[in-house]
Amino acid sequence: xxxxxxxxxxxxxxxxxxxxxxxxxxxxxxxxxxxxxxxxxxxxxxxxxxxxxxxxxxxxxxxxxxxxxxxxxxxxxxxxxxxxxxxxxxxxxxxxxxxxxxxxxxxxxx
Amino acid sequence: xxxxxxxxxxxxxxxxxxxxxxxxxxxxxxxxxxxxxxxxxxxxxxxxxxxxxxxxxxxxxxxxxxxxxxxxxxxxxxxxxxxxxxxxxxxxxxxxxxxxxxxxxxxxxxx
Lengths: 110, 111
Fold this sequence. Notes:
By secondary structure, chain A is mainly beta. Chain A has strands at residues 9-13, 18-23, 31-38, 45-50, 55-56, 61-64, 70-75, 84-92, 104-109. In chain B, 35% of the residues are buried.
């Protein structure tokens, strides 16, 4: 599975959009982009995933560039409860193992 | 919602003890996984299983074994606990081709 690169940490003001970038320049055509987050002392939680098209659900939006070499997770109106570590993972949808890096630590500031 | 339940939230064991960490999922998922999480190292895969009675080594299997006698239960075994196995242990399950559902984790301290 392709590797990903994320910033170590980011801050965001409460109520503003949080945009979390991820680079995956070696992604192959059949690899999906997944996002998870982990709130302190809990297990990681699935947020969203996509292949080529942009995706939106009740938690977030995922924007994937046309060349698929990078993506951005958008939390449209960040709250204090969104403070967490966010993991971007690319993975073929068979084989099943997820390899987690160290992610981006997002702090939402009041 | 799928539930993945880990038997203990916190556990303290002595060096040399045999330790069992239990994980149960209630949605008939084929795949189950054990990770450990340490500061600065992220999540690392220990073992996983695609079916009953089968297991595959992950990236850091040394010092661990697993058991999957029933589809819903995946046990992680520390044969002889050591202080460097002090960590947060996370269990996850999934259907083929889908994302993971994680348990809440077991924070194990080996003294």
